[in-house]
Amino acid sequence: MARKRYWLMKTEPDTFSIDDLARVGSEPWNGVRNYQARNYMRDDMHPGDGVLIYHSSCPQPGVAGVAKVASAAYPDPTQFDRRSDYYDQASTPQQPRWYLVDIAWERTLEQVIGLADIKALPALADSPLVARGNRLSILPLAAAHWRAILALEAKPA
DNA sequence: GCCAACGTTGGC
DNA sequence: GCCAACGTTGGC
Fold it and tell me: How confident is the model at residue A152 (pLDDT cuts 50, 70, 90)?
């Protein structure tokens, strides 16, 4: 049994928010078309890993909820669907290019933990999350980063 | 294999 | 809407 890992996964709430995840309970995290993010899902994620759901490209960017990895990696079915925005004609079922995992909702934070507050955490100084120009939609989090971010929850706004 | 052009991400 | 940063593409 591998040790539990921690992740941060971005989503645009206009498209799919923490409330949407709460409604469906579990969601195949499809549409990731970046090789490094794919490698994280395919190679490094395991059921039970902790996931912070991060809202991006929205009025209030920040961590909006907690979820967990709920499946092993498997091929993203949207890559084979001609009608999908995520269709990839270079990918075949015999040799899929894109993989995903299912993500299961655990809880929605009462208040979004804003990016500015996260950036202000000394413990997060070495996290890729606060690095300049970070565009990866899936990021690994050290356990200490996970704890430091969620510790902000206790503080009044 | 290099690198310029282009497209996308994402905070502000 | 702006702009910086980054990944991908494609000509050579």
Answer: very high
Query: How would residue A143 be classed by pLDDT, with cut points 50, 70 and 90?
Result: very high
- Strand C CB-contacts below 7 Å: A 34-36, 131-135
User: Which chain C positions have some atom within 7 A of a protein CB?
Assistant: 4-8
10 Å CB burial of residue A85 (0-12, 13-18, 19+) is exposed
Structure tokens at A44: 């490094």
List the one residue out of A36, A35, A28 whose CA is nearest residue A73: A28
pLDDT of residue A155: 62
